[in-house]
Amino acid sequence: MIIGRFFGWMFLAITIVMLSGDVVMALGSESYHGLATADLWTFLWGTNPINIIGKVNTQTNELINVILKMPAWAFLGPISIFLLYIFRPKRTIQRTLIIN
Description:
Blueprint: H1 2-26, H2 37-45, H3 50-53, H4 58-69, H5 72-86
Helix pairs in contact: 1-5
């Protein structure tokens, strides 16, 4: 549970850094296309994600193409929020038994 929250907060921090970097670069004077999810994949694992696309069927192939073209912060942000929601600390309810 603590590990899930840790990864959720870590992914959220990385998402905020990537989003702020994209905003700063977009406000610059030159054209900037942003960091795509495919670029992040290549940076982290060192392989081209196109190799994975060729091994799946057509509907999944289209979905993966859409995800890989998304900005990296738009893909990682919802994942981090989902992890934080799933692994949130849950309150226990104390119930008292009242006998009349």
